[in-house]
Request: fold
Amino acid sequence: MPAISSDDMFAIELALGEAVSNALIHGNKKSPDKPVNIEYGYNDGVFDITITDMGDGFRINDVADPVQDDNLTKDHGRGVMLMEHYMDEVHFNKKGNQVRMVKRITPINN
Reply:
């Protein structure tokens, strides 16, 4: 795997942290008995991450827009927006308990 730029590393770390946090808190309802599965891979310049929780899932269309006036001062609700901003692709499965994120890595020369 080539060297990853600090911008790409930041994007991956932030999106992964948000997705895992959502899986633990919202998906698994903080249950220590429910695992979160993380799969990742790198192939031909593409970093691919899939996070799956054991929860009932959610509908992406039901997530409130965090930049609407009523939501600006809330202390939560920005994770999906951040994942979509920093990753090149974000896909949720139909059930809503799995997210797949893709980041196309910008090659850097050392």
